[in-house]
Amino acid sequence: MTTSMGGAVETLKHATELDNRPVDSKRSKVGGKWLLPLWGWLVILWLIAPIVVMIVFSFNQTRGGKAVVDTHWNGFTVKWYTRLFDTPDLTEAFRNSLYIALLTTAIAMVLGTLMGLAMGRSKFRGIGSVNLLLFANIAAPEVVLGAALLSLFLTLDIPLGFVTILLAHVMFSLAYVAVTVRARMAGLDPALEEAAHDLGAGHLVTFFRVTLPGIMPGVVSGGLLAFAMSIDDYIITSFNSGNTQMFPLWVWGAYERNAGQLPPQVYAMGSVIFVVGVLIAVSSAVWNRRAS
Amino acid sequence: MSARSIRNKLAPYALVFPGWVWLMIFFVVPIVAMLSVSTMTGNDLEGFKQTWHLGTYADAWNQFHDRIIRSLIYGIVATAICLLIGYPVAYWIAFRGGKYKSSLLFLLLLPFFVSFVIRTLSWQFMLGDSGLIHGALHGIHVEHGLFTVLRALNLADTDGQYTQTNMAVIGGLVYNFLPFAILPIYVSLERVQPVLLEASADLYASKTLAFLKVVFPLSIPGLFASVLLTFVPVASDYVDAQILGGTHQTMIGTVIDTQYITDLQYPTAAALSFILMAILLIGVFVYARVLGTEDALEMAAA
Questions:
Q1: Suppose B299 and one of A46, A234, A286, B225 were both cysteines; which one would form an S-S bond, judging by CB atoms 3.0 to 4.6 Å apart?
Q2: What is the Cα–Cα distance from A200 to A197, expressed in whole angstroms?
Q3: Do the beta carbons of residue A218 and residue A183 sit within 8 Å?
Q4: Across the interface, which of B104, B123, B277 has its CB nearest the CB of A144?
Q5: How do residues A197-209 score in pLDDT, each as one tens digit?
Q6: Per-residue burial over A56-77, b = 16 or more CB atoms within 10 Å of its CB, e = otherwise
Q7: Count of CB atoms situated within 10 Å of the CB of B143
Q8: What is the mean pLDDT of chain A?
Q9: Any CB–CB contact under 8 A between A88 and chain B?
């Protein structure tokens, strides 16, 4: 289960909403004045360490003609960034991952939003079993989801590739969108929609002018979550990809081919994805803060 | 019944239907297919036939139970460490974060912007035999002494390696799943009304007593959710064990992967997946029933 930017955004939003609440800081100082912040910063430092290493070493020269990231510092270079797309397999793997992630986001957003709309508002017969289905889907171990889906594809003789990866990715991200939208829908005052009806708005107008804008932050974070989970997934994808190369699979494969070392382009591409992802998340959080 | 009220009654079903169908076909049916594959016999060349052979389960258990048990132990240990490390961090951000709460949370979530595989490989890059840390420590001649200490603490193996040890794998698991453990605890602590703390102070409770009697009990649903969110993915992960561990750290996920993809032993792999899922899901549901509440499930899902 790999979460991400969407989750980050939703949590950030949550934090922002509650930011303005007064907290009596004098009274709640359990854990000493310095101990708690020190602990917190050490944990943050530890969480960030591998990212710093990745970014720093994406600027390292290679040594002795071996195209792998060296632990020895051989001098600064930006050539891995200019040669980002010089390895055709890596480029193809990255493109596949991007396409799958975009398609997954689109499909999961539509199906998940529809589910969330119904589940956040009405108490229909059978809602319990749908809840259980969503919970089981989120709780099931990734390796089991991957292996089970492969069993189905093998039983029905369905060839593995782009389509089976897409089917798998929508399957594991759909429930997260549904749950995110459901929470947002449950918090939306039904009086707003009733008011729209009373003012003569039809079902469609009410939906597009009142309901949809109201749940939009949930839809967007659900979509970001689906995108991030899809582009980063290793386990389920490795079961259902056949010969189709995907970014995380290529990275793993390259690591095994090079006896435990990575081509420098991987660190460069990882750094680019990191920076782009952070920019998207920050602007989305800013946009959310403005919207609310 | 008017046409309108029938429409209103059917609307939720129509909305839920497409997603429900997708999950039925690609989640529920595959689980059934996997159950069915697990009782087949045959081989890759002649194909597998349904023979209702239940012996595969016993064979799979006998052959691989050590790895299933190891995965569960790693899961329990890593989850416990995540809670111990994570609780104070969640507390710090919830009660002392002030206006920097969202920025601090964002820092905790930064690892998610780097691919899971690359993050874990980055640890290997630092801890490996010719890795950064070996290099740095070797340069300042403290490595020999350090290893004597680490070996005494059972943190490094006898050949002077940081990786290929239980600690390396558990460390990787804790690293990768810590944010999942912190967030639900943070959310539950964040909901604790400051008024409650004032009230407990007014009633002459010490800070420690207020924490034990007021704050901690209110954060229990968050702790439950943390355990749910952390334990299952940790116990079934195998990326960390494969990159940071050696042959003595193999987890059950690796076995399922190898049996399915390399050895083409579909029935064994299916049986193992089912055993793993049964243990984890039954564990989770019993845990939620006995200790948790609907809240815990809700929080885990959100």
A1: B225
A2: 5
A3: yes
A4: B277
A5: 889 888 888 888 8
A6: ebbbbebeeeeebbbbeeeeee
A7: 17
A8: 85
A9: no
Is the CB of A260 less than 8 angstroms away from the CB of B128?
A: yes
| CA dist list (Å): B69 to A273, B129, B164, B240 | 37, 28, 18, 17
Contact predicate A246/A97, CB 8 Å: yes
Assign residue A188 a region (left: φ > 0; alpha: ψ between -120 and 50; beta: otherwise).
Answer: beta
> Can you say how many angstroms the Cα of residue B278 is from the centroid of all Cα atoms in its chain?
16
Low-confidence ranges of chain B (pLDDT < 70): 1-4, 130, 134-160, 291-302
Residue A171 to residue B114, Cβ atoms within 8 A:
no
Tokens of A226: 């689906």
A162-216 per-position pLDDT tens digit: 999 999 999 999 999 999 999 888 888 888 888 988 898 888 888 888 889 888 8
**Residue A2, pLDDT score:** 40
pLDDT tens figures, A38-88: 999 999 999 999 999 999 999 998 887 778 888 888 889 988 999 888 888
CB B118 within 8 A of CB B211: no
Q: How far, in Å, CA of A235 to CA of A248, rounded?
A: 9
pLDDT tens readout for residues A269-280: 999 999 998 998
pLDDT at B156: 63
Beta bridge partners of B50: B40
Q: In chain B, whose CA is at the least distance from the CA of A286?
A: B102
Flag if A251 and B270 touch (Cβ within 8 Å): no
Most confident of A103-112, A255-264, B248-257: A103-112
Cα-based angle A6, A9, A12 (whole degrees, multiple of 5):
150
Checking if the pLDDT of A137 tops 80, the result is yes
Please give the model's pTM, rounded to 2 decimal places: 0.85
**What is the interface pTM, i.e. ipTM, of the complex?**
0.85
What number is the average pLDDT over the span A257-262?
82
How far is it, in rounded angstroms, from Cα A124 to Cα A217? 25
Q: What is the pLDDT of residue B293?
A: 52
What is the DSSP secondary-structure string of chain A? ----HHHHHHHHHHHHHHTTS---TTTT-TTTTTHHHHHHHHHHHHHHHHHHHHHHHTTBPPSTT--S--SS---B--HHHHTTT-SHHHHHHHHHHHHHHHHHHHHHHHHHHHHHHHHHH---TTHHHHHHHHHHHHHS-HHHHHHHHHHHHHHTTPPPSHHHHHHHHHHHHHHHHHHHHHHHHHTS-HHHHHHHHHTT--HHHHIIIIIHHHHHHHHHHHHHHHHHHHHH--HHHHHH-TT---HHHHHHHHHHHTTS---HHHHHHHHHHHHHHHHHHHHHHHHHHHH-
CA distances from residue B264 to B42, B158, B250, B270, B276 in whole angstroms, order as listed: 11, 36, 19, 11, 19
DSSP B246: -
